[in-house]
Structures
1.
Amino acid sequence: MAKRSIAAIIGLGLALTACAGMREHRGFIIDKSLAQAIQPGIDNKDSVTKTLGRPTFTGQFDPNDWYYVSRNTTQLAFRDPRVTDQTVLHVRFDQAGNVTAVNQTGKELIAAVDPSGDKTPTLGRKRSFFDELFGNIGTISQPGLPGSRQQ
């Protein structure tokens, strides 16, 4: 009887530790005092690099946009991670490399994308699995189709 209760306690302990939450930080660690020290009209690319380091990424359409991204998430067992805190520091430069603007946003800009179910909506006729699998048999050798031989 004592062995069963010990085994039950160990099993319960293992089950509870499997459901433990995980916290994770990804990206840049933003020091608020250093971020506030970046001043438009005073700083340039070199001084921003010395103060904050290299950016997380630069703008896709304009390399004079630098982004420093920091994100904290929590996750319980096998569920999807949930964002608890996010900071995006956007530093914009002019063509000469001088800071023109510094903007900071939080997790309010995170977009929730909800998939449209388990099927992809398409235009046109609906075909079954077997129609898709066997539908092209015999159509290649018909005259007038691309790839067919005409005599």
2.
Amino acid sequence: MNKEPQYDLTLETPRLILMAGEQVLAYKKTITDELLNSADSLKKWVSFFNYNFDKAKATEFIDKTTDMSFNKQFLRYFMFDKETNTFVGSLVLQDIDLRLPSCEIGYWTVVSGQGKGYMTEAIQYITRYLIDTHQFARIEAYIDVKNVKSIDTIERCSFEREGTLKNSDLSADQSKLINEALYAITTPVYFK
């Protein structure tokens, strides 16, 4: 039986600090402000921004996703620009499966952080971290085929498109079926 891995709750890339857990609560106001400023832009692709997203929901989201006792199969990192300490986005590792080990990666950038390459930098770093430090064999992403920016980002990070899943999920607003592109990065598996 595999024991539960200890993930670093603070990671640093050249331009970013990625934080998880209760330490994020010190930045609750700036995160809340950026979430509220970006909700209209993000609701097309991220479902939780679609349900009357307001300050109370932003606070609930931050509290819930930083509670490490609650998070056994996912780990959410909040991303901050090192130079300005501004919140720029979020990256989540979900459906963590320690048997392989593997996970699904999800991500989004707030409006003020878009178009600056932050997410590409974060995904490349977290992918290398999971493979090198935790020996992950597979990291996958499911992306609405219409989300061209997200597809461009994951392809820049060397993820390979494995196929298209037809009618595999609902749109972020839950109004229609969507097709998803399945991307993955895998490592060789050696059995002893």
3.
Amino acid sequence: MVPRDTPGRPDKFDDDDYPAYTMGRAAEMIGATPAFLRALGEARLVTPLRSEGGHRRYSRYQLRIAQRARELVDQGTPVEAACRIIILEDQLEEALRINEELRKDDRRDPPAT
């Protein structure tokens, strides 16, 4: 048995991007149908990896995104609009993160006088 903390070997249980969940299990976990997950794939919000047999496999990260989409759809938002909202939320979060990093850099390196 290989220890969990073996260098160079990521622990799949801790990896948010590891495609651990089948479509059926993923749908069950977020309270949706497999058709809903396929619709998210068609909208290119969530692109599951494929097993060697061609079955869709979802990661925990993808399930969080799908869960957010399901929440929006449950509130009456069309699937396509929900996908766009999530993409824009992600872009805004990234822009805010970059802004904060730039502000920290500015505070560390005051302008020369």
